[in-house]
Specification:
Two copies of one chain form a homodimer. In chain A, 76% of the residues lie in helices and 1% in strands. Chain A is globular. The first copy, chain A, is mainly alpha-helical. Chain A has 18 helices and two strands. At the A-B interface, helix 10, helix 11, helix 14 and helix 17 of A face helix 10, helix 11, helix 14 and helix 17 of B.
Chain lengths: 339, 339
């Protein structure tokens, strides 16, 4: 999930939507970071070491930002949103640790991944620890509705990961199946992160549902744009490597569409490079050429724009204000990254 | 579900995609109609009377056409697809009968609906009869996979209907919740109708999945276009009434978006007309004006185009040929109706 990365680099260029969002909730965000540091402590030295490696190393706290801004937009100004935002970040971090083990990733945010440094077993168990911590924080918060939302999201994330495992290196994955994968691996936590904002503010169900729809569709759009950027020169211009997904044999929408639109020779190419993961240096260039020929990067962005439009409309029931504006700007920013 | 209706009138203008599809599988379709007439018989006179009223009265057999064309595209030329197409039509008809009871509809395809002529109880029970007949036909066919697909679709349809009941007259229904409703009430049976085509042809899972994705997304697109047409002058030009959904207080995407994009006065209007269903003659005109002001009909069509694009791409794995061409033309036709 390189989402955070992309955002970070874009932000470094200054003055974008996430920057404004971060400033808007900066006091809360300081509190979130304190809670994260505090609750990742343990007498078992390896836990804060490993957790610190991945948590402190970066990430723009996008999901916690969504919780904080959603709560604010719903009129909440108390301390609970920071605790729940920390929960959301713990769940996110736990899934990153487990993902890297499953994907056998060597790098995370440009540094050696935890599984490489401390081994798979430690990564799995520290992931479980962070996951448990998230639930402890939720229990402390004491809202059964929050527990229901975040435990539900966790189950969907796990389902999404299993589905991804089942479809991995399978070039015949359907777009519909892939959408289910990204609903699980990315969008469900975005949805829950936003939804709990309405819960702490004690707002009616209709606002919970609106924020769920907003987060879910923002998450889908986000992941699709990320999928497109992985093959885009734009990524390179931002100083990031192109083709990480390709080298890992990941099946994403630009590939799915290229496979569907390609001829027999092209499909053999995708099978060799992504199913068997037999690649040489020229193959990435060839992959990008095929995507351009069939317009699959452009169309992946167009698909993302559809989900972005749903997200934007979902906020319609909330009164105008700086938080709402900032959340809509995050959608625009997300889609614009792809153009 | 006025889908069939729209298609009919468009077809009457001659030479469209559905016409070509119908001609392509005309021999099979004759067999489907024979099976339908044969299996709706019963010693209980009321059953063929009532069933005949709704089945014979019209409908363009769109769902059976999808089954027949999908099977053909998968290389199947035997007799089983006609039987399964009849199953699909029975399931569809059963849901229409039950829908009319639930919605308290007085008209179906321009004629008095069965519940008005024979009463609610008879409509519910004949619906159950047709539903059971569908399962008998499936059991005769003998494929457990087909039973699995069609019983699964039936469950989703029922879930969708319950969800629709829960969201009916609720102007705050989210777009996400509405998508779940139409996946259930329309798209699930489209998906199953197409998917069984691959099963009778004994094709690999990947083709089943592709046809499921095709049917599901075609079904969503279809329903969304239908929702838009109900408020469109195009509908009037075709000699059909405009505003049926409005008069019934139905919550569809053009309304959901207009509510989300509207101000407090406009929301009060939607609540009065669709929640309380207090309407006078000028209200429909006002509703259409609000939709035009906020571009919600145009955007409903744009949303539909997204699902249409997914449906088209889903057929990518099938070799070119007349059936594939005809199925893609059905998607184009469906979307074009909305422009």
């Amino acid at each position: 999930m390189a989402v955070i990365f992309n955002l970070e680099s874009e932000r470094d260029k200054g003055g974008d939507a996430l920057d404004r969002l971060t400033k808007m909730v900066s006091a809360d965000l300081v509190r979130v970071n304190q809670l994260i540091l505090q609750h990742m402590q343990s007498d078992v030295q390896l836990i804060p070491q490993l957790a610190g490696h991945i948590i402190a190393a970066g990430g723009k706290r996008l999901r916690p930002l969504l919780t904080l801004a959603s709560a604010r937009m719903c009129g909440y100004h108390g301390p609970r949103s920071a605790g729940l935002a920390a929960c959301v970040e713990f769940i996110h971090t736990a899934t990153l640790l487990h993902d890297d083990v499953v994907d056998e990733s060597a790098l995370r945010r440009g540094e050696a991944s935890a599984n490489v440094v401390w081994g798979n077993k430690a990564s799995v168990l520290v992931g479980d620890f962070l996951f448990s911590r998230a639930f402890q924080l939720m229990v402390q918060d004491g809202s059964l509705r929050v527990l229901e939302i975040l435990s539900g999201a966790s189950a969907i994330i796990a389902e999404g990961e299993v589905l991804q495992l089942m479809t991995s290196n399978d070039t015949t994955t359907t777009e519909q199946a892939y959408l289910e994968v990204i609903k699980g691996k990315t969008a469900a936590l975005f949805a829950a992160a936003c939804e709990v904002g309405a819960v702490v503010a004690d707002r009616p169900k209709v606002e919970e549902h609106a924020l769920n729809t907003f987060g879910l569709n923002l998450g889908i759009a986000f992941q699709l744009i990320d999928d497109a950027l992985d093959y885009s020169a734009k990524q390179e211009a931002l100083g990031k490597t192109v083709g990480d997904d390709f080298r890992e044999g990941k099946i994403t929408l630009p590939v799915i569409l290229a496979y569907l639109r390609g001829d027999a020779t092209e499909r053999a190419f995708w099978q060799r490079t992504l199913e068997k993961v037999e690649q040489d240096d020229a193959d990435l260039r060839q992959a990008i050429q095929l995507m351009e020929r069939h317009g699959t990067l452009k169309d992946t962005v167009a698909r993302a724009a559809h989900y972005g439009a749903i997200a934007r409309d979902a906020l319609g029931i909330f009164p105008e204000g700086p938080e709402k504006r900032a959340l809509i700007d995050v959608v625009d920013f997300c889609i614009d990254r792809g153009f």
